[in-house]
Amino acid sequence: MSLNRVKDLMRSGKPAFGAIVTIPSAQVMQVMSRAGFDLLLIDMEHGAIDLPSAHAMIAATAGTDTVPMARIAANAPSLAKPLLDAGALGIAVPMVCTRAEAEAAASALRYPPLGNRLWGPFYAPLRWNMPMPEYMRAANESVLSLITIEHPDAVSNIEEIVLADGIDVAVIGPGDMATSMGHYGQVDHPDVQAAMLRAEDVILRSNVALGGVAFSPEHANRLIAKGYRMLFLGFDWSLLQRGAHQALAGIERR
Fold it and tell me: Residues 36, 21: contact at Cβ < 8 Å?
């Protein structure tokens, strides 16, 4: 039994589309969860979001088809646990560079015997409108484990990383990959592109779904054709900025 329609989409070979939310606002989450995204990733790595805000943002997706997930700041069970207990159905872990790190990330998200998540889902059953025992039975199957491939060490170890137990999605981070390779802001640098292509090739030949970032509808369609199954189409701030620019475009200032 799975509560996670994003997991079901990817299992059927269809792509899932999401956005990253950095603004600590249940209202922003309400608006975006009704825009048609399959998932929204609450950014607790770079966003100004604390745990109470994240809890309210997860709750704000109720009544929609959008699946709430979260990105934590480090590979630590203590960061993932309260977000899962609030009802998140996916955790993204940054800077995973080895198989051991990937397995630790996945283990923190699942109850024994598949992992080491501890009991305490006081609010997750309320978000998913079910009794706690039913949530407990569905949790291991429903929670998605996402890792981010964003460092040359991860690319060097990618064949081993994709063999890690419990990993569902490996997301390639272009901006972080460029930065970690010393090519700040140069996603199109040949070395960055070569690293990403190597990671793509290995992930696509594995049982792990490939995720990434698309900067336009055309870019998204190209990545889908390559085999990407999870795409992030922007941040809340970038979508807000784009809409503001469009509202002002073409107006004659007098």
Answer: no
Q: Is residue 251 part of a domain?
A: no
What is the Cα–Cα distance from 72 to 92, expressed in whole angstroms?
6
Q: What is the pLDDT of residue 110?
A: 98
Q: Would the pLDDT of 2 be above 90?
A: no
70 burial level (CB within 10 Å; 0-12, 13-18, 19+)? buried
pLDDT in tens, 55-69: 999 999 999 999 999
Residues 6+ positions from 88 with CB-CB distance below 8 Å: 42, 54, 58, 68, 69, 70, 143
Q: How many CA atoms lie within 13 A of 30 on its CB side?
A: 7
Instruction: Report the CATH number at residue 97.
Output: 3.20.20.60
Instruction: Compute CA distances 192 → 1, 12, 173, whole Å.
Output: 40, 31, 11
Q: Is the pLDDT of residue 199 over 80?
A: yes
Number of structural domains (the chain) is 1
Please name which of 34, 73, 76 lies closest in space to residue 54, comparing C-alpha atoms: 73
Threshold 0.90, pTM exceeds: yes
Is the peptide bond between 113 and the residue preceding it cis, with omega within 30 degrees of 0?
yes
User: Residue 50 is part of which domain span?
Assistant: 5-245
**pLDDT for 15-30, tens place per residue?**
999 999 999 999 999 9
Active centre residues (catalytic): 46
The verdict on residue 172 lying in a domain is yes
Kindly indicate the confidence band of residue 1, based on its pLDDT and cuts at 50, 70 and 90.
low
Which of 85, 135, 141 is CA-nearest to residue 115?
141
